[in-house]
Protein 1
Amino acid sequence: MRKDRLAQFKKKLEEKHRQLSEGVGKAALYAKGPEDDSTKDLGDQAATSYNREFLFELSNGDRRVLKEVVSALQKIDGGDVGDCERCGEAISDKRLEALPFARYCIACQRLIEEEARTAAG
Ligand SMILES: [Zn+2]
């Protein structure tokens, strides 16, 4: 990847990193909330636990992406970015534009998802 493009790419990842860090931090804060369930009726309690689960899921997903973003940033620092980790082909610009932390080219990503589906039964 060319130097100017690499810088652009890194900026994008850093922006994403910032957004996610804030999001994960907020979700964790909200999920812990200082509320007291004992003062609420059962309907409220159910809603509260539903929200907690939802936020937990959300922050888990965000945390996973955050990890991908961090490893992509590390790869940039190592000067090795934009190539598929599976087949070594260059990942298309369009794909990197949408998913700057993509580790695989579109063909390999499909194969991996296919394998995951097959493994899951
Ligand atoms: Zn590939």
Note: The chain has a mean pLDDT of 80.
Protein 2
Amino acid sequence: MSRPWFDLHSHTVPGVDDGPVTPAEALRLLEKVRREMPEGSVVAATPHYSTTMSLFALRSRMEKSRRFAEQVSSQELRVLCAGELKLGMRFSGFHRLLSYPGTRRVLVEFSHGLVWFGVLRRCMRLVKDGYLPVLAHAERYRWADASRLRFLSGIGAAVSMSLRSLVISRFRKRAEWILESGCCHLVTSDCHEEGDPVFGSAAREFVERLCPGSWEVLAAENPRRILEEEPLPPPTGGYGRG
Ligand SMILES: [Fe+2]
């Protein structure tokens, strides 16, 4: 029996963002996740949030997510509540509410047009406040080359790659690059609907083909370290080759 996997980025809460619309759709998606992941695995429900939204809207989305996660969590598959926070100009403090439970690590994204300097500034602000960013779908940003991703790792950020990028043609090549180059600490599904890739044997085979020996590190070991606030090893790549 395989040890648990940890998917730290998913849109599985119904009616809060661009994920499932109805509870029935959300349950079908989670049923697929449950079938594919080993017993005792964890999926983090990370609806979209933004530093420009109101505190009221944020709290109501959080509350819906919390209730849903409580309802669907089981021994087979634990569903945690966190958020994917789009970091804007404004320093909202919302990262303190949306970090992974019991940790100071928070999943973040940026506007697609944001330049490197803006990314750096926003990340440094989090770090200064005692929080560490987990970069969602790093492969989607133009600024994200190997040296910048390594720089962000150096200040404590975790770099993640979304399996969902593999089914979006404009992101596919970069998603493959990020795996091959060994620039990421973890893979996530970022699933929004039943048809999206989730953690399972197909995902594992795909990741292993591009970066042999990496699946356990990217889907189990490193994300577990994030949830337990253990330091991450540098993303050196070449997992299992030496
Ligand atoms: Fe997402």
Note: The pocket of fe (ii) ion is lined by residues 9, 11, 84, 136, 190 (CB under 6 Å).
